[in-house]
Design goal:
Blueprint: E1 2-5, H1 14-27, E2 32-36, H2 42-48, H3 59-64, H4 69-75, E3 80-82, E4 88-91, H5 101-106, H6 112-118, E5 125-129, H7 136-144, E6 147-152, H8 156-175, E7 181-187, H9 195-206, H10 220-228, H11 232-235, H12 240-252, H13 255-267
Parallel strand pairs: 1-5, 1-6, 2-4, 2-5, 6-7
Antiparallel strand pairs: 3-4
Length: about 270
């Protein structure tokens, strides 16, 4: 299973969700890989901390090397690095990857990531963190993925951007990846006592959009885990926000949630 965490808007918690869901996956016993495609390198820093300085090869090397995917499978991908957590590996981001965008577009490299990830059969789950833009890297991730998880923070700007995002995902499905499924919209940094967030959630549900039941609260504990470079399942396993993330992970893997997504797709 390859899951892309995608939103064209910044600050919605893509890196936090991708990293924490991957950490829960590994903690549950699944061999898990995280791919950091964001030049801001937040996921890489979150998982490696000070050890990031020791990383020699990054996602940049995946896009620029000329080996075929079958060759990579035989020789091994040297840009996959182990994290401090058992069963959790990483392809680190590179701040300079943004400079490659025009070159990669000209060379039609949008399938490079898909072909590489298909050869990594040792992983039960792969999570892709994307940049806050619809560009060749986020498009490559959508083409490579089976499922798309959309983080959403409850404000009017995010709501307006959501419709464009859904159109871009639908276009990618039609043109490049008919197997891609919108897994759901997860409300992140939710303020339960504020009127506006709950109002927006209710309106989106009335519109029939695939909002997941699990919502992630706004909490300083998330920022503390960033600073400590420890996913919450390790940093604060009993905290409320950690339990919300576990509930989200379980919802994404339950049959009821899958059935509800099929119903939404049929009505869309």
């Amino acid at each position: 299973m390859i899951r892309v965490v995608f939103n064209q808007k910044g600050g919605v918690g893509k890196s936090s969700l991708a990293t924490n869901l991957a950490a829960i996956s590994a903690q549950r016993g699944a061999n898990t890989l995280v791919v950091d495609l964001d030049p801001q390198c937040n996921t890489t820093q979150y998982l490696l901390g000070d050890d990031v300085a020791q990383v020699e090869e990054t996602i940049r090397d995946l896009f620029t090397q000329n080996k075929r995917a079958s060759t990579l499978a035989k020789e091994g991908a040297s840009y996959i690095v182990a994290t401090p957590y058992e069963r959790l590996d990483l392809i680190a981001a590179d701040a300079e990857i943004a400079d490659l965008q025009a070159k990669l577009e000209a060379r039609h490299k949008i399938y490079k990531l898909r072909d590489a990830l298909r050869m990594f059969g040792d992983y039960d789950e792969i999570y892709i963190d994307t940049p806050p833009a619809f560009n060749i890297f986020s498009l490559s991730a959508l083409i490579a993925a089976d499922r798309c998880l959309i983080p959403f923070d409850c404000d009017d700007f995010s709501r307006r951007a959501l419709y464009t995002l859904l159109e871009n995902v639908e276009e990618t499905q039609e043109d490049h990846n008919p197997e891609l499924v919108i897994e759901g919209i997860v409300v992140n940094q939710f303020q339960a006592r504020a009127h506006l967030p709950q109002s927006i959630v209710d309106e989106l549900r009335e519109e029939g959009l695939p909002l997941l039941d699990s919502m992630i609260s706004q909490s300083v504990k998330m920022r503390e885990s960033h600073s400590a470079s420890q996913p919450l399942i390790h940093f604060a396993p009993s905290h409320k926000i950690t339990q919300e993330l576990i509930a989200l992970y379980d919802e994404l893997h339950c049959d009821k949630s899958k059935a509800r997504r099929r119903e939404w797709l049929a009505s869309a």
